[in-house]
Amino acid sequence: MHDYSIDAWRHEHVFLGADHARHERRTWIVIGLTATMMVGEVAAGLAFGSMALLADGFHMATHAGALAITALAYLYARRHARDDTFTFGTGKLGELAGFSSAVILAVVALLVGVESVLRLAAPVAIRFDEAIAVAVLGLMVNLVSAWLLHEEAHHHGEDREPSHAHHHDDHNLRAAYFHVLTDALTSLLAIVALTTGRFYRWIWMDPLMGIAGSAIIAHWSWGLLRGAGAVLLDTVPDRRLRDGIQQILEANGDRIADLHLWRLGPGHMALVVSIVTARPQMPDIYKQKLARFRELSHITVEVHPCQPKREAA
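Predicted structure:
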């Protein structure tokens, strides 16, 4: 019978970002605003014949869906944070949600671009006054939504040192913020197109702004795919951090044979390092050397004793 408790060496694998529940609540509020405005813009675009307005409405529809994925990812990650089925917790669900919404955005960008080109070739009649009113309302809703999420991102990072801030970035929250920010921009493009069409009879401006909106959606989709994909593939999140870890662990002549550094969730990173040394110490000694790196939430150290090479006589 062992006379010690193993519980002292166990720890939880909860790697959710700070203010996780708060971010989730704000996201649901923005979803309600976005979905309501989306229905209004699509209906108005169909009724008033505006492709720019219709494109903005469909754009908001994709963002409403993407925001729903964001919120559901928050919900699922929170409810399963202590589920040992997830080896390193549920902190990366935000990346998966962001990648999924990026794929949706890419498809919609293509559809809106094709429809805009068709409208450019075959213009349709537009009821400008009504369409402009709806577009202005959409812009106001988008700006309020962007403000809600931007304030949340600022609140989340205001007490951190600038050099460590990017390690705590909540990619799920940032994806939601840039979604509504892009919505605001495409609403502005719709207003420009409709206004010029109303006063200068530049009917071609409406589908042209639809094409511009499509390009914006595609650009954001690509950026989100790259950012979320990099985390999902466990790429090194910070080369300077990796170099700093190596410098500290090799300061006394020890050598690193293998080092793996990856992101587990907002503000949380994992490190697995294999050290070869002629003066082996307990793993806890090496972990204490890394205590200055607060973003390292899960550290595994292997120590391999070896004899130094003897010089030839």
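Summary: The chain has a mean pLDDT of 78.
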